[in-house]
Structure formats: C-alpha cells, structure tokens
Amino acid sequence: MLDLAADLVPLLEAGVPVAAVTVTGVVRSAPRGVGATLAVTRDARVIGSISGGCVESDAVMLGLDALRTGQVRRARFGFTDDGTVTPISAGLACGGAVDVVAYPIDPAAVLPALADARAGAEATLHLDLDGDGLDLHRPAAPRLVILGAGEHAAALCRLGSAAGFAVTVCDDWALLVTPDRFPEAVELVVAAPHEFLTRLPSPDARTAVCVLTHDERLDVPALRAALRLPVGFVGAMGARATVARRATLLRAAGVSEAELSRLHSPLGLDLGGASAEETALSVIAEIVASRNAADARPLREVNGARLHSAGIHAAAPDDASLSCAVRTA
Fold first, then answer.
1. For the stretch 110-149, what's the b/e string if a residue is b when 16 or more beta carbons lie within 10 angstroms of its beta carbon?
2. 170 CB contacts (<8 Å, ≥6 apart)?
3. pLDDT tens digit sequence for 69-90
4. What are the residues facing 280 on neighbouring strands?
5. What pLDDT does residue 329 have?
6. Dihedral of the CA atoms 33, 124, 115, 140 (nearest 10)?
7. Mind listing the pLDDT tens digit for each residue in 298-327?
8. What is the value of pTM for the model shown?
9. Which fold has domain 143-291?
10. Kindly report the CA angle at 37 between 208 and 14, in degrees rounded to 5?
11. Domain residues of the chain, as ranges?
C-alpha cells in the first residue's frame, strides 16, 4: 500500500472510501511478491497491481466486497498444489498462486505513514485486521537530484517520480522552479546548484545527481561538488564537444582523474530518441542500470539467473517487505 501513497493520499483526504488487496503469501512463483497491493474505490477505480494483470479482476471483486461489507476478506488466487486453478480465479501465468487479504482502508490509521511514503521518506504501517496484525514497511525512496529546471528537467522529474525516485529540483531561477512545472517533485529548491549540494542531507549510494543546467558557469562548480559526494551516480547532459570542454574545465578546477571517471556524460543510454521524454527515459534507464550493475542488454539475451537477480518474478520487491500473522485461505 505504501508504494501507492501518491494516489491514495488525495483520495483518502477527500473522504473517498477505498479498499486494499495485499499479497500475504506466494506459492511457487508469482509476478509480484509479498506486500504487493492493489487498491479499489466503490466506482471500481483501480490503483496498483498484485499480479500485473493475471488475477486483477478477481482481486478487484474481492476488494469491492470488502468495501461493501466493511469486512476483511481472504482468498488464494492461482494454481493449487495439484496444478488445477482455484474455482474463483484465473491462473497466474507463471504457474503459482498468491494468498491475499482484502480490507477497507481506515484513513485515520494509514494517512500519517502514507504521507511519509509520499514524501519519499521511510515509512512503517501496522494494520489490525480482525485481530491479526499486518505490518508494511517501505525504505526511503532512492533520491534523484536534478540541477537545472528546463524542459528536459521537467520530463526527467515526471519519469523519475514514476520510476519510484523521490525527486528534488534545484535551479537559481525562481521563475522555473515552481510546483506547476514540477508537480511530481518532493522538493523544489531555489539556489545555486553547487551551493545546494554542499548542504544536501545524507547523500548515499542510492542518490543520483543529474546536472542539466546547460551553463558552464553553473555546471562546472556543480559537478565538482557532486563528484566529491558519496552518491551512487553523477551525470551531465551535453554534446560530445561540450563534454570534452567541460572535462578540461573540471580538471582546471581541481577535479582529479579518479573523480572525473565517475561522471556519466553524455548522460543516458543510446535509445535513439530525441524528445525530452525520450531523453529522460534514456537517463532513468542508465541510472537504474548503473545502480544494479547491469549492462542494459535486451532481456531475451539475459539468462534465467540474471532475470531473477534483477527482480523479474523475484519473490519480493527490493523496496517493500511484509511480515504478518494473517490467516490465509
């Protein structure tokens, strides 16, 4: 549920009744792991997923029933131990089954934790379902710091947020750093980028810094500051001639060869796109590939062991865990 915070908080604050269906157990294999949650409103608006499509219709019906009755509902979706499909559900394409619990969401109980998750902070949520405890935990979202607030930055903010990053946008021009231009950002900062980086709280290996200022007077000091932080990724946009000139200026500014070797520039994977959105997609793809030490090959060229370690049909997502004492079917 915590990964649905951006959509759930406005609904719950507006008084819209919502039910959640959460995976509490996986048998053999499933597209999503324990903790995956789908939410549904009375008019059957669906938020999130528990299977990527295989059993969503049954999950929605179970959630609507919990919403209608105000009662907790439990079920198993998918294949039974003998390989047959349970009567109430379609089978999971991967041949497994999931145990789920459906329950009406109590806004008073969940909004504080959802607000933390929406802001990209670590969040923990305990639910009491008919005497059974359900504990959901979400580590803080990885951070994406975008320096520069042009059109490419706006596209990168949209895609970065959709990919699960808590996005900060910084620029020294207040006219550009506005909520209207960056509604998905969790933080907007009006400051010189290099000065902001000197006070960046708790930079770590899950922090990515992208310099999109397109101005050597700003991007050289910003990159010098970023390359000296313990962040996991530093990138900068620019044509190859710009990249070469900027490298010369960075060396002249005291940046060492070891520091310079950390710089991803030109920024992004070669996807062949040209629009701001396509460029943003290539940037997010490079950040994710770098974070996972992946070579960004097509999945058809990757063996099964690598697929599992990359999170394809893995038992549980990297950014969520669930421990529970909920009785399942």
1. bbebbebbbbbeebebebebeeeebebbbebbbbbbbbbb
2. 145, 146, 147, 148, 149, 177, 188, 189, 190, 191, 193, 196
3. 999 999 888 755 554 444 444 4
4. none
5. 35
6. -70
7. 888 877 555 544 444 444 344 444 443 333
8. 0.71
9. Rossmann fold (3.40.50)
10. 90
11. 2-139, 143-291
